[in-house]
Structure formats: C-alpha cells, structure tokens
Amino acid sequence: MRRVQFETLVITEWNVETFPLPKHKHSFYEMIYIRKGYGIHILNNNRFPYSSGDIFIVSPEDKHYFDVKKRSTFTFIKFTDSYFANHKQHRPDALFFSCPEEIMRNKLLKEVKLEMDELSASILRNTIDNIVAYNNRKDIASSPLVYYQLLSIFGLIREAAMKLSIRVDKGQAGNEELISYIHEHIYEPQLLLTKNIAKHFHIAPAYFSAYFKRNFGIPYGDYVSEYRIKLVEKRLAVPTLTIKEIAVEFGFTDVSHLSHYFKTIRKISPKEFRKKAISMFPPVGY
Q1: CATH superfamily of 2-163
Q2: The whole model's pTM is what?
Q3: N- or C-end of the chain: fewer Cβ atoms within 10 A?
Q4: CA triplet 218, 222, 224: central angle to 5 degrees?
Q5: To the nearest whole percent, how much of the chain has pLDDT over 70?
C-alpha cells in the first residue's frame, strides 16, 4: 500500500486503539509525534517500542506500521519535497549543512530510536503544540512561522543524532563522518570496498587500511563485518523476515552467501541464531 499526498503540508492527529492502516509507504515525508499511549513501531525491518514524547521520521523509501498496545494519540506532520523548496527564501544560511529532506532520508536514523533529554523533550512537545494550534489557518503551508517551528524540530533531531554519533551535516571529513558513511552504506557492499571508500574520502587506497586502524584501533574489514553482522542479527530476531529478504537487503548474492558469511563470523548458522534469539525474546505480535 502506498499513500499519496498532493498538499505540500498536512497536519493531522489520530487517537486510536488500533492503527487503521496496514504496513505502508508514502509519496511524502512524515514526522510522527507520540502524544499518548504505547506500543511498537515497525519501521522498515526494525521494531521500536514507542511511548509518549517519542518522535519518528519516515521518508518515501520507508515502510512502516504501528502495533498499538495502549490507546495512542499520534500527531502526523506530512510534507512533500515542494514544501521546503517553496520556503528557500526563509531558510537561514546556517541550515545549508543539510537540507531537511536529507535528514528525513538518513538510513541511520531508521536503525535507532531517537532519545532526547528532558529539556529537548519539553521544547519538542511545546513546538508540536504550537504547530497544531496553528493548523486551523488556511495559509499554514505558506506560513513562515510554521516553517521556522519545523526547522527547530530538525534542530532537535540533529542534536539527538549527534549524541548517537550520527552525522547529518556536510562538515569537513573526519572520524565521525567516516564512520557515519560506513553505517549509512552498510547495505551497499560495493561502496565500502577499500578502493571506493578511499576514493570518496580522498585517501590513497594503499594507505587507507593503515589510516583506519591507526584512527580506530581496529582493522577496517573487521569493523565493517562486525557492524553488518550486528544489523543482520537484529533482522534475524524479527521472525516475519525471511533469510532471503535479509540477504537481499545487505547485498549478499543469495542465502548461501549470507549463511556462509554469518557462520564464518559467529560460528553458528543464521537459522540456529534465529531460533535462539526468538526463544530468548519472544516477539510482540504484529
């Protein structure tokens, strides 16, 4: 199922005991703020517990669904590519580090749950309240006031991402950017070949491995393998995902390729790992 939106900005609120939509994609971007209730947010191939005060971001590439455990109130802020393009004249120069659409599409922000401290959580709640209060006006999509409120939410998301060592800007290349690049492209093995990542960061391929180990204290190949295998383990703990789907997501040629890779590193097959993971942590029902 793919939901389509033609308005550049739409704000809605739902108070539901059961989420009314199946697992779906959008043609737009969506911020989802949890006002009340708790349950599970299934985002792509991850399951995140949600509760009051949480915020999630979803882009057109993502597929998601909410498994409501206690009656929940959701605030949805939905916008298209045109929304921010229409407000370029209002955009502060300092925000050219990364456009909101790039933050919304950041794959790393779909692998973790954003956490905010008490002050940031309070600012977020008040900002959401301000936007919702303004929603009865006909000119909401063209309002600079609403635009700046949304930018402040992106500022809070950026701060939360930085605490998780996820960079969402385009600053000078450094250790954080290198690690962030590896994490973002872990699904695309070709981009992480030494010759390709070295070229991307303007480091001589013959020197890259030594550079990485000196800066991070671990061989480059070992770091990539360990990060990839941890993500694969998370996927294996979701019983509704087939091993073939996991293999495709992470760029393995087939199930046998993934199984050999996994067993070489973990000394156990993916099927055996899945059985143990599910027996230790039975999944919450979809």
Answers
A1: Regulatory protein AraC (2.60.120.280)
A2: 0.64
A3: N
A4: 110
A5: 91
